[in-house]
Structure formats: structure tokens, C-alpha cells
């Protein structure tokens, strides 16, 4: 797994180690720091995914059969450094797809995002196949990446699978650099200081998902029979859509005295360009996707987890 020090990797490594064995999953990271549980529970290595030779060597030396390629710059970080977003997000995907053509790699997971959509996509019930005109470099790399995955699947038979993750809400590791970060920050600040200045408007609606659902979706997709996978770009995936104000209210019901103010910054425009609700019926039909966490269950689990772990921030 690349990006193993990131928000998804931190939680996905332990899930995969439980499934495949502690020694079978190599946690590769470049920036930041691996979570203690990840570093201590199995093999780890430092890997710069923008170095094709190093990536190739890591796969060959370890006889890797599956790659979860999670290393990425998120949407807000990508606006700060679009060149680097292109190189990390897309250059490294091309590298790993090419590695898969001539190595032991049999299956590949690469996450896409709601960021592939843009202001011209339908905002409600956004379909699987629709207008895709993203306005962030992050979205551009995800859109091009989906096209690359589809091409490598069709042309070279690479078994690459992908999900358009919604904003992911979790407590083990704070992502940083994303537009949906306000959702996680709100929990952290509620428990630390009792107040939060939210960087999107109160009425901002985005599709969000509790990490446990996202991890289960990832495993279900990766263990589905190849014949069931009819989308080789990336699957729409959704659980919940709610406003920033509704989230603040759900937290305030459980954290007495919590107050939230709303002061939008440049990330508002990014949020406004993304869908409010998503149609994920293809994932439901092809491999049986069903989310489990609603807003109340997620809020309870987040408050309990943040209180225990502090969101790794
Ligand atoms: N959570 C991501 C972001 O906000 C979207 O994929 O950038």
C-alpha cells in the first residue's frame, strides 16, 4: 500500500493485515509519519511514488500481487501546488499501471473522488455516467486517472478497481489538504476547545461517509469476482449527505455548549462545485454495496474515537 501514513491508509492497513496476515501487507509511505499501529504490526518501507525505478524495485523485491495505491495530494493541497498534484496523483498512477503490465501484480486499487464532478454535473442524484468538468487540479487528475484505469483495463487486461470516495470522516489520522476536512475538524475542535470556525457555509451540502463504511466498500470491491465489475473507470459511492450546519447540530446535541461559526474561504468554491447527493446504484447492483452508518451513528462513533485517539493530528 502506498500512502499508508494517510487518512485512508492508516485505517486500511490494519484491515488488510487482519485479512491477509500481518507480514503480507507492506505499508509504504513518503511524507508524514506512519501511525504506531501500522508501523508496529508489520512491514513498512519509505517509497517516493514519483520515482518509477524505486516503485518498480519495491514491487519486484517483494513479489507484490496487489497494490492499493493511495498516495495523493487532496483538493485544497492540489490548488496550492498543482504541478506536484499532477506528478503525484497521475504520474504515479501511470507508473503503477505500467508496473502491473509486467510484474506479479494481479489486482490494483486506486481511489477516485467526488472531485471528478464539477459545476456542470447534475448536483442531485449525480449519475455514474455524466458530464465531468472538474475545476480543481485534484479533480483533473482523478478524471484523467479514471480514463487511464479504463484504458489499461481494456487495452492490457489490468484488473484495476476504483471508487469515487465521498468526503471521508475518521478519527485515526487527520487527512489535511482536503475540502471535506471541516467535517473531521469539527469533531476535533468540539472536544478540544468547544468551538469551531468552519471554512464552508452552514448550508453547504456534501456527500460524506464514515471511514468504516469506506473500508468495507474497498474490501468488498477488491474481493468481488472480476466478472461483476462493470465499471473500470471508478464507481460512484455514497452513504450520507448533510449540511455543515446539520453536522454542527448533531455534535452540539452530544457536546453541550459546542458552538460553530461559519467563515467560508477559498475551499467554499471547491465545495460548491461538487455534488450534493450521488447515485451509486451501479455499486449496489454489481457488488452489493450498502452503507451502514447514518449521521447519528457516525457522530457517536466519531466522538468516541476522537476522545480516545485524538484523530492522530
Ligand atoms: N476529501 C477530498 C477532498 O476534500 C475529496 O476527495 O479533497
Largest sheet: 3 strands, parallel
Characterize the overall form: globular
**What share of residues is helical?**
40-55%
Q: Tell me which ligands are bound.
A: serine
The total tally of domains equals 2
Q: How many strands in all? A: 13
Strand content is 5-15%
Strand order of the largest sheet: 3-4-6
Full CATH superfamily name of the largest domain: NAD(P)-binding Rossmann-like Domain
* Secondary-structure arrangement, i.e. CATH architecture of the largest domain: 3-Layer(aba) Sandwich
Q: In CATH, what is the class of the largest domain?
A: Alpha Beta
Order of helices and strands: HEHEHEHHEEHEEEHEEHEEHEHHH
How many whole angstroms does the radius of gyration measure? 19 Å
Please describe what this structure looks like.
It is a single chain. This protein is α/β, with parallel strands linked by helices. The protein has twelve helices and 13 strands. The chain has helices at 7-20, 36-40, 52-62, 75-80, 82-101, 137-156, 181-192, 211-223, 244-252, 267-273, 281-287, 295-309, and strands at 27-29, 44-46, 66-68, 107-109, 112-113, 160-161, 163-165, 167-169, 195-198, 205-210, 235-236, 240-243, 259-262. The chain has a three-stranded parallel beta sheet with strand order 3-4-6. A three-stranded parallel beta sheet has the order 5-7-11. Strands 8-10-12 form a three-stranded mixed beta sheet. Strand 1 (27-29), helix 2 and strand 2 form a beta-alpha-beta unit. The mean pLDDT is 96. The structure holds serine (SER). Serine (SER) binds at residues 74-75, 113-115, 138, 165, 167, 178-180. Serine (SER) is lined by residues 74-75, 113-115, 138, 165, 167, 178-180.
Amino acid at each position: 500500500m502506498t500512502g499508508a501514513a494517510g487518512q485512508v491508509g492508516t485505517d486500511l492497513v490494519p484491515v488488510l493485515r487482519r485479512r491477509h496476515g500481518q507480514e503480507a501487507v507492506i505499508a509504504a509511505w513518503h511524507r508524514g509519519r506512519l501511525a504506531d499501529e501500522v508501523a508496529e504490526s508489520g512491514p513498512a518501507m519509505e517509497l517516493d511514488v514519483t520515482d518509477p525505478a524505486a516503485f518498480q524495485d519495491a514491487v519486484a523485491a517483494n513479489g507484490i500481487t496487489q497494490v492499493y495505491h493511495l498516495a495523493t495530494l487532496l483538493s485544497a493541497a492540489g490548488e496550492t501546488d498543482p504541478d506536484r498534484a499532477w506528478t503525484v496523483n497521475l504520474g504515479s498512477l501511470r507508473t503503477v499501471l505500467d508496473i502491473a503490465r509486467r510484474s506479479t501484480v494481479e489486482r490494483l486499487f486506486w481511489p477516485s473522488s467526488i472531485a471528478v464532478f464539477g459545476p456542470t454535473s447534475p448536483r442531485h442524484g449525480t449519475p455514474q455516467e455524466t458530464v465531468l468538468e472538474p475545476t480543481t487540479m485534484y479533480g483533473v487528475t482523478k478524471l484523467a486517472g479514471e480514463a487511464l484505469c479504463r484504458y489499461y483495463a481494456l487495452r492490457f487486461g489490468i484488473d484495476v478497481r476504483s471508487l469515487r470516495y465521498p468526503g471521508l470522516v475518521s478519527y485515526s489520522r487527520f487527512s489535511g489538504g482536503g475540502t471535506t476536512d471541516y467535517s473531521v475538524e469539527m469533531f476535533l475542535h468540539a472536544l478540544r476547545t468547544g468551538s469551531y470556525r468552519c471554512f464552508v457555509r452552514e448550508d453547504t451540502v456534501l456527500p460524506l461517509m464514515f471511514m468504516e463504511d469506506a473500508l468495507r466498500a474497498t474490501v468488498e470491491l477488491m474481493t468481488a469476482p472480476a466478472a461483476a465489475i462493470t465499471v473500470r473507470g471508478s464507481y460512484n459511492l455514497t452513504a450520507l449527505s448533510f449540511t455543515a450546519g446539520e453536522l454542527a447540530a448533531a455534535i452540539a446535541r452530544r457536546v453541550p455548549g459546542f458552538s460553530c461559526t461559519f467563515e467560508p474561504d477559498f475551499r467554499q468554491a471547491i465545495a460548491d462545485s461538487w455534488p450534493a447527493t450521488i447515485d451509486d446504484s451501479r455499486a449496489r447492483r454489481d457488488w452489493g454495496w450498502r452503507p451502514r452508518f447514518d449521521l447519528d451513528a457516525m457522530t457517536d462513533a466519531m466522538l468516541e474515537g476522537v476522545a480516545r485517539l485524538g484523530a492522530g493530528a
